[in-house]
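Render this sequence as a predicted structure.
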Amino acid sequence: MTQISILGCGWLGLPLAKALLEKGYSVKGSTTTIDKKELLENAGITHYPIALEVENFSPPVDAFLDRSQTLIIAIPPKLRGKNKDYSDAPNTSFVQKIKNLVPFIEKTSVANVLFISSTAVYGEGNETIDENAVPNPVTESGKQLLEIEQLLLSNTHFKTTILRFGGLIGPDRNPARFLAGKENVPNPDAPVNLIHLEDCIGIIHKIITTDCWNTTLNAASPFHPSRKVYYTQKALDENLVPPSFNEDAPSVGKTISSEHLIRVLNYTFKKPQL
């Protein structure tokens, strides 16, 4: 039985772990505390409390990675949110935390690493973006994600695939509530670049089953209505107050292309219309 370790069993990692169990994999999962041990183990996931740290890092990583062929790094975005500026970077550096993890990976059986990244590494612009585009992150989180991507891809001890997700939607992330009732929202004509949890899981499973390693993939639904059209309709569908938009300033926003992913993985989106 193939064993997979998932670092970060949160909004994405936990349902992913459950889906992989249903597919016949053995799954080890981590959370930052012991609090979710019962939740994971009741689902059949072997639990490990692992909190990545900048210093004094000595959690049970060896046991967590032991005999796993694949490691999926799915740290919840809210942890990355601490790195929006440089004010506390020495204490919260996501880059340093992953650097501390790498030596543990190198000495284990892990052959493949899947790093869940974000299309935030591309910055902003009014163009269609594919994997050949040069990243130009403007946020601290985007900059740190890009640095981690490069760190992992350059390591020869294991194969790495980078999966750059658009905005995540699904359970507890209802797009109708993202902008409902807000006023003077910028970029009304910018395209949306979102992806449903169901497709996140489907794409990750495809990467594993097709051995699609040593590559970078963009993952966003091939459905890009304007922010104004999409969020207005979503709010109306839920009987919420639609947002109002700032029509005075020019809209800025990229379109994320997933054509390469669709072609390489032969993948069909399950929730293309979001």
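Summary. Residues 3-171+195-223+254-265 form a domain with the Rossmann fold fold (CATH 3.40.50.720). The chain has one domain: 3-171+195-223+254-265.
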